[in-house]
User: What shape does this take?
Amino acid sequence: MRTKDKQRTLIKGAQVVFSHHVAPADVLVDNGSIALIGTDLLPERYDAAVHDAQGCYLTPGFIDMHVHGGGNCRFGDANKEAVYTVLQMHLQHGTTSIMPTISSYSKETIDASLDVLETVRTETPEQPLPEILGVHMEGPYFAAAQQGAQNPAAIRMPDPKEYLSILEHPIPIKRWSAACELPGALQFARDLTQRGVMVSIGHSNASFHEVQLALEYGYRSITHFYSGCSSLHRIGPWRHAGVVEAGLYFDELWVEVIADGCHLPESLLRLIYKTKGPDQICLVTDAIRAAGVPDAENFYAGGSLDDASHFIVKDGVAMLQDGTAFAGSIATTDRLIRTMVNIAKVPLAHAVRMSTLTPARILGIDRNKGSVTEGKDADLVVLDSSLHVRQVYRAGVPLLE
Assistant: This one.
């Protein structure tokens, strides 16, 4: 007798979102993997339960490479229950693989947060959770002029003693965002790339030429493109290009995009897509604790300095209390896809690819994840015709009632 988590499931009648197109197909899930893709597959032939997905889309599970929290918790809380809350909330919105992001904190808070994440990563949960792919360190080596909502008291210069110590944690640090123009930031990048860590330009006031130099030391991406990035400016009569222009120009750089419909307007979303294309864009939530909180605009109306959540939520986005900068998003990945399709007018297959195959390829996990392909993990999402989540499969197990 098959147990629930080993049961074969035949997902019938969906419009399957493949890497380059959308087409009707049936998908057989068996033992956590995609066993077969075809048309008019018969459930009795495979002893399979049937999920009727007529009128829906079937996509790969979403991969979020930059996410701080959700459900009124954050990974930086250094609390196991908080980590589980964040993971469960994002899973309900289709994120089946996740890269927890640790922001600019003290060394003590960073160490404690990484220890808790490693504990959760190695536990066997009662219910399926998104796979933790490793950690993204966002800071603390940032330019004060581009700090945004980062804690200014925690921003500092790259210190080899500190960052090499952080890399010794059992949980792998996969990405690290830093301002490439800081003293020591080039050696930082060289040290990390030699250890297999991807380095990204973030919260940076670098010039175009400083970015060009940074490429030689291993920087290969730009964190939340346009946000926390220098751009074209004048000094006297002279115009100077910045991180944004370098990101658009250099093919070696891929970019994160917070496609919540707030951080970037339609015009910039379309410009980035036209310039970089779906294989060099990763959609990220940059979600903070307010993501997934019902009635978030009223819940976070006042903000609080006591827990460093000094933000408000207004018009579908988090911002500093004085309204001078965004403070992360309250988005989930399904919202990013809706934004790219409905506002930026990007084809659905490309919008999905920027949340699945592109990050999978960049992370080197595309052999098992990132597309609806026979033999890959059965991490799948069923979206209705308006692109809202109706079912999530994690390793073949359906999670929503």
